[in-house]
Every structure is written in structure tokens, then in C-alpha cells.
Amino acid sequence: MRALELLNYLAALDDEGELTPLGSIMAEFPLDPQLAKILIVSPEFKVSNEILTITAMLSVPNIWLRPPNQRAAAHQAKAMLTVPEGDHLTLLNVFNSYYQNKSDRNWAWNNFVSARALAQAEKVRAQLLRNMEKFEVDCISLEDEQNRNTAIRQALVCGFFMQIAHREGEKGSYLTVKDNQVVAFHPSCGLNAQPEWVLFNEFVLTKRPYIRTVSEVQPEWLSQYAPVYFDLSTFPNGETKKALQRVANKRRGYPENGQKKRVVPTNEPRKSDNPVP
């Protein structure tokens, strides 16, 4: 039922359970439905070239190497490749750096990343590019880096909107949306800060619940790109709903209490403190 619900929210299935035109294209990609959806809609954000790379990187085993006797060096090398906004952009940066170094295995070894996983990502990317060409999905990029990084994270919301977590308090714990699971960032996460809202790829349960492959998102993107899922009337009461309600009130011009201030028209007389008798 959860899988059917996901496909319905992704607009891959209609209310009768039949494939939509979008769902038919998604089914032709050898990917999880969420990744397929992101890849297909990415030209709308003009970052399909980057989303293609990120999708390929998410489709291969873990790229990071941590030799027991070189953990400090591996940590330092990873920090040099890390992008502050999140792990998805970091994966893109690693692949682009590897490509710019002409797929040099020595570069991969010196930066403690798996040359085998990166070579596999190259093959996956080439295969997915052929699928994109088959269905005339344009492969384009934005020029400005800051706008590009924002657009990439917006595109990710279109597929992973069910995997959003909200920070609870200042102790570093997060609460997943709707499921209300208390989670923390996995040690492999590259985010230095603790943004209020994050998107994650994996839920990992070891000694405690973790979320892995995490990127910062803005709350207004949630209702903008997944309005059906983020319909507040369907949300359970709690801190996450309150936080989303505050965002909705702010967009509509309401203050924190949800009551809109009355604006006195310029042609309406104001009450004087000392009215003339």
C-alpha cells in the first residue's frame, strides 16, 4: 500500500491504479520511481545534466574509502570535496572532479574515493543518457553555480518529498515528516550545519535511526513542488505541522499567530487620540 501511495503521489499512477503518461516513461528507466521522476522533470529546472550525474552516483555502491590506518587523511580528503548544501551536490562534485581528471584511478586513490564505483557510475550515466535521448528528455545546465545548486535541490524535492525531516530543538535530532521517526544524521553525512529542513535518500537503522545522503531544502519548496502530499489538512498534529503552518502563513502574509493584520486604506479616516468635539 505504501508503494502504491508513493506511485500515486509521484503522478505515475492515477486514482484507478492505471499508469499515467508520465508513469509509462518512468517505467522505461532502470531506476527507482523517485529517481526516474526526478530525471524526467529535471529539464523544467534546467539542471538535467547534473541530475543525470547525481542519479548515476546514487545508483552505485558507496564511493568513499576509509582505510583503517588512514582515517584522518580520508576525512580531510572528503572535506575538500564536500559541498556545504548537502551530500547530493557533493556526489556531483566528486564525479565532475573525477571526469575533469580524465577518470584517473590515481586521482581517485589519492582522494580516497572508489575508482571502481566511479567507473560504474560513468556506465550507468551513459545508459541513462540513452534513455533520455529516446524519450527526448533534454540534457541542459544552468550557467550560474548558485542558481544551479538551488535548482538541483528543488528538483530533488519532486521525487523525495516523502523523505523530508524537520529539526526538533537544538540537540541535533530530526523528525521525519508524517512518520514522526526521531532520527539523526549518519556519520558519513557531509553537512556541517543543522538546517531546519532536510531531504534524505536513506533511512538506516543500526544502534539508532539515521538518515543518510542528506541535503538542505527550503520549506516553501515542499508545498510548491508536492502540494498534494503537503496538504496540511492531512497532516497529524505535531511540531512539523506547526512549522509548515508557519511557513504557509508567512507566504500568505500572516504573522506568527495566523491572524492577518488589517491594513487601513489611505482614504479611510483614522480614529484620533484627541477627537474634535
UniProtKB/TrEMBL annotation:
Keywords of this entry: ATP-binding, Coiled coil, Helicase, Hydrolase, mRNA processing, mRNA splicing, Nucleotide-binding
Single GO MF descriptor: ATP binding
Highest taxon above the source species: Eukaryota
GO biological process, one term: RNA splicing
Enzyme class: hydrolase
Disordered, as annotated region: 246-277
InterPro entries: DEAD-box_helicase_OB_fold (IPR011709), HA2_WH (IPR048333), Helicase-assoc_dom (IPR007502), P-loop_NTPase (IPR027417)
Catalytic activity of the protein: ATP + H2O = ADP + phosphate + H(+)
GO cellular component terms given for this protein: spliceosomal complex
Ranges of compositional bias, category Basic and acidic residues: 268-277
E.C. no: 3.6.4.13
Pfam assignment, any one: WHD_HA2
Keyword Cytoplasm: no
Residue ranges annotated for the Helicase-associated domain, each copy included: 2-92
Coiled-coil intervals: 118-145
PANTHER family, per the entry: ATP-DEPENDENT RNA HELICASE, ATP-DEPENDENT RNA HELICASE DHX15 HOMOLOG
Protein name as catalogued: RNA helicase
Organism: Collybiopsis luxurians FD-317 M1
